[in-house]
């Protein structure tokens, strides 16, 4: 591949790696100014409670991508503009949420890649219920902490850290 990692499209990745990739079939909406983003995966599993999401995005991101499995629930938002602003400030490349966000107009102004199922103005609970750094699965893909995710206009793909390293030597 002649492109740098930032320029590799999900279609090119699939052509290169095929079965070594998981392609997420979930049809996300795009938010934030970054249409394309990629990075090492950090995960959170939570249900209508975003305290762990908030704590995670308020920590150093170092170009990583947070994948949040909210069980495809859109009855309350798992991220809003203040948490998204913290993600930018802390160097996160992007956030993929199997759930809803809020403050979408403000999030669209941020230099962050965001994929979510939709929006809901209702805030979530703050009890801290959920899990961090556990494998999560949705849309036919498994997101394991330490693996690598790419997101662009065509979708979301994930591969092992080993395959991602192999790609970086080819690119």
From TrEMBL:
| Gene Ontology MF term list | 4-hydroxy-4-methyl-2-oxoglutarate aldolase activity; metal ion binding; oxaloacetate decarboxylase activity; ribonuclease inhibitor activity
The record ties this protein, via SUPFAM superfamilies, to: RraA-like (SSF89562)
- Return the Gene3D superfamilies for the record: Ribonuclease E inhibitor RraA/RraA-like (3.50.30.40)
Give the EC number.
4.1.1.112, 4.1.3.17
Q: Which CDD domains match?
A: RraA_family
Instruction: Name the cofactor(s) required for activity, per the record.
Output: Mg(2+); a divalent metal cation
The reaction(s) catalysed by this protein are: 4-hydroxy-4-methyl-2-oxoglutarate = 2 pyruvate; oxaloacetate + H(+) = pyruvate + CO2
Keywords of the record, alphabetical order, are: Lyase, Magnesium, Metal-binding
Amino acids binding Mg(2+):
103
**GO terms for biological process, alphabetical:** regulation of RNA metabolic process
Residues annotated for substrate binding in this entry: 80-83, 102
The record's top EC class is: lyase
What's its job? Catalyzes the aldol cleavage of 4-hydroxy-4-methyl-2-oxoglutarate (HMG) into 2 molecules of pyruvate. Also contains a secondary oxaloacetate (OAA) decarboxylase activity due to the common pyruvate enolate transition state formed following C-C bond cleavage in the retro-aldol and decarboxylation reactions.
The protein's assembly and partners: Homotrimer.
Similarity comment text for this entry: Belongs to the class II aldolase/RraA-like family.
Name the chain's protein.
4-hydroxy-4-methyl-2-oxoglutarate aldolase
Tell me the organism: Dermacoccus abyssi
């Amino acid at each position: 591949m002649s492109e740098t990692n930032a320029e590799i499209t999900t279609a090119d990745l699939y052509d290169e790696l095929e079965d070594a990739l998981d392609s997420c079939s979930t049809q996300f909406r795009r938010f934030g100014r970054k249409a394309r983003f990629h990075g090492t995966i950090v995960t959170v599993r939570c249900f209508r409670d975003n305290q762990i999401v908030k704590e995670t995005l308020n920590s150093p991101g170092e170009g990583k991508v947070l994948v949040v499995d909210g069980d495809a629930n859109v009855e309350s938002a798992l991220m809003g503009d203040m948490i998204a602003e913290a993600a930018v400030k802390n160097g996160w490349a992007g956030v993929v949420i199997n759930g809803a966000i809020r403050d979408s107009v403000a999030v669209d102004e941020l230099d962050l890649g965001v994929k979510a199922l939709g929006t809901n103005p209702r805030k979530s609970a703050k009890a801290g219920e959920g899990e961090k750094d556990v494998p999560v699965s949705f849309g036919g893909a498994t997101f394991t902490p330490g693996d690598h995710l790419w997101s662009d206009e065509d979708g979301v793909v994930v591969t092992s850290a080993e395959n991602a390293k192999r790609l970086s030597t080819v690119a």
